[in-house]
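# nightly structure sweep
# worker-07 picked up a monomer target from the shared queue
# config: single-sequence mode, recycle default, output format = C-alpha coordinates
# input follows
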Amino acid sequence: MATKEVRRHPRREKEFRVEYTVISGSSVLRVLEARTLDFSVSGARIETRQQLVVSDQLSVRIEVPDLQVFRQDSGGGKKYQTIPIMCFGRVRWVEPGQGDGPLRAGIRFERITEDNRLYLSRLLEKEPAEKSS
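# output follows
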Protein backbone atom coordinates (compact mmCIF):
# COMPACT_ATOMS: atom_id res chain seq x y z
CA MET A 1 0.00 0.00 0.00
CA ALA A 2 1.38 3.44 -0.97
CA THR A 3 1.91 5.99 1.75
CA LYS A 4 0.36 9.42 1.42
CA GLU A 5 2.94 12.16 0.99
CA VAL A 6 2.48 15.12 3.31
CA ARG A 7 3.78 18.53 2.20
CA ARG A 8 4.39 21.60 4.31
CA HIS A 9 3.69 23.97 1.41
CA PRO A 10 1.08 23.64 -1.35
CA ARG A 11 2.40 23.02 -4.86
CA ARG A 12 1.09 24.63 -8.01
CA GLU A 13 1.39 23.26 -11.51
CA LYS A 14 3.64 25.79 -13.21
CA GLU A 15 6.11 25.39 -16.03
CA PHE A 16 9.28 27.47 -15.75
CA ARG A 17 12.68 27.12 -17.38
CA VAL A 18 15.36 25.73 -15.06
CA GLU A 19 19.14 25.64 -15.31
CA TYR A 20 21.02 23.55 -12.78
CA THR A 21 24.47 22.19 -12.05
CA VAL A 22 25.15 19.03 -10.07
CA ILE A 23 27.74 20.17 -7.51
CA SER A 24 28.12 16.94 -5.53
CA GLY A 25 30.27 14.04 -6.64
CA SER A 26 31.23 15.50 -10.00
CA SER A 27 34.61 16.66 -11.17
CA VAL A 28 33.12 18.32 -14.26
CA LEU A 29 30.54 21.05 -13.69
CA ARG A 30 28.04 21.58 -16.50
CA VAL A 31 24.96 23.77 -16.76
CA LEU A 32 22.01 21.50 -17.55
CA GLU A 33 18.44 22.34 -18.54
CA ALA A 34 15.10 21.26 -17.14
CA ARG A 35 11.61 22.59 -16.64
CA THR A 36 9.38 22.68 -13.61
CA LEU A 37 6.17 20.68 -13.63
CA ASP A 38 5.09 22.14 -10.31
CA PHE A 39 6.68 24.09 -7.47
CA SER A 40 6.18 25.58 -4.04
CA VAL A 41 8.26 27.82 -1.78
CA SER A 42 10.16 24.74 -0.56
CA GLY A 43 10.78 22.73 -3.73
CA ALA A 44 9.87 21.72 -7.26
CA ARG A 45 9.16 18.72 -9.43
CA ILE A 46 11.33 18.98 -12.53
CA GLU A 47 11.63 17.16 -15.82
CA THR A 48 15.10 16.71 -17.35
CA ARG A 49 16.96 14.50 -19.81
CA GLN A 50 20.05 14.30 -17.57
CA GLN A 51 20.55 11.53 -15.02
CA LEU A 52 20.10 12.55 -11.39
CA VAL A 53 20.64 10.56 -8.21
CA VAL A 54 18.80 10.88 -4.90
CA SER A 55 20.78 13.21 -2.58
CA ASP A 56 22.60 15.01 -5.43
CA GLN A 57 23.28 18.63 -4.46
CA LEU A 58 22.35 21.17 -7.11
CA SER A 59 22.89 24.82 -7.85
CA VAL A 60 19.52 25.89 -9.28
CA ARG A 61 18.35 28.87 -11.36
CA ILE A 62 14.62 29.14 -12.16
CA GLU A 63 13.29 31.77 -14.55
CA VAL A 64 10.00 33.04 -13.15
CA PRO A 65 7.70 35.86 -14.28
CA ASP A 66 8.59 39.33 -13.06
CA LEU A 67 5.26 40.47 -11.64
CA GLN A 68 6.30 44.12 -12.04
CA VAL A 69 7.39 44.09 -15.70
CA PHE A 70 4.98 43.07 -18.45
CA ARG A 71 3.57 44.25 -21.73
CA GLN A 72 0.08 43.82 -23.04
CA ASP A 73 -0.47 41.93 -26.25
CA SER A 74 -3.10 42.86 -28.86
CA GLY A 75 -5.70 40.73 -27.05
CA GLY A 76 -5.17 42.55 -23.75
CA GLY A 77 -3.26 39.69 -22.13
CA LYS A 78 -0.07 40.24 -20.17
CA LYS A 79 3.35 38.97 -21.30
CA TYR A 80 5.76 38.96 -18.36
CA GLN A 81 9.51 39.39 -18.50
CA THR A 82 11.46 36.94 -16.37
CA ILE A 83 13.72 37.19 -13.36
CA PRO A 84 15.96 34.46 -11.95
CA ILE A 85 15.42 32.76 -8.61
CA MET A 86 18.70 31.25 -7.42
CA CYS A 87 19.21 28.68 -4.69
CA PHE A 88 20.78 25.37 -3.85
CA GLY A 89 18.73 22.21 -3.79
CA ARG A 90 18.86 18.51 -3.04
CA VAL A 91 17.32 15.71 -5.09
CA ARG A 92 14.73 13.93 -2.90
CA TRP A 93 13.43 11.37 -5.41
CA VAL A 94 13.91 10.34 -9.04
CA GLU A 95 11.38 8.71 -11.37
CA PRO A 96 12.73 7.23 -14.63
CA GLY A 97 11.24 8.44 -17.89
CA GLN A 98 9.09 6.26 -20.12
CA GLY A 99 11.15 4.82 -22.98
CA ASP A 100 13.60 7.52 -24.01
CA GLY A 101 11.50 10.25 -22.33
CA PRO A 102 12.78 12.66 -19.70
CA LEU A 103 13.03 11.66 -16.06
CA ARG A 104 11.25 13.47 -13.26
CA ALA A 105 12.79 14.45 -9.95
CA GLY A 106 11.76 16.14 -6.75
CA ILE A 107 14.06 18.95 -5.61
CA ARG A 108 13.99 20.41 -2.09
CA PHE A 109 15.24 23.99 -2.02
CA GLU A 110 18.08 24.66 0.41
CA ARG A 111 19.89 27.90 1.10
CA ILE A 112 17.32 30.11 -0.61
CA THR A 113 17.24 33.77 0.40
CA GLU A 114 14.26 35.04 2.33
CA ASP A 115 13.61 37.56 -0.48
CA ASN A 116 13.43 34.76 -3.05
CA ARG A 117 11.21 32.65 -0.76
CA LEU A 118 8.84 35.62 -0.31
CA TYR A 119 8.81 36.25 -4.06
CA LEU A 120 7.90 32.61 -4.75
CA SER A 121 5.11 32.97 -2.20
CA ARG A 122 3.77 36.05 -4.01
CA LEU A 123 4.08 34.28 -7.36
CA LEU A 124 2.01 31.36 -6.09
CA GLU A 125 -0.70 33.79 -4.96
CA LYS A 126 -0.74 35.96 -8.10
CA GLU A 127 -0.89 33.25 -10.78
CA PRO A 128 0.08 35.24 -13.90
CA ALA A 129 -2.33 34.40 -16.73
CA GLU A 130 0.26 34.51 -19.50
CA LYS A 131 3.54 32.64 -19.89
CA SER A 132 6.69 34.65 -19.36
CA SER A 133 8.70 35.77 -22.37
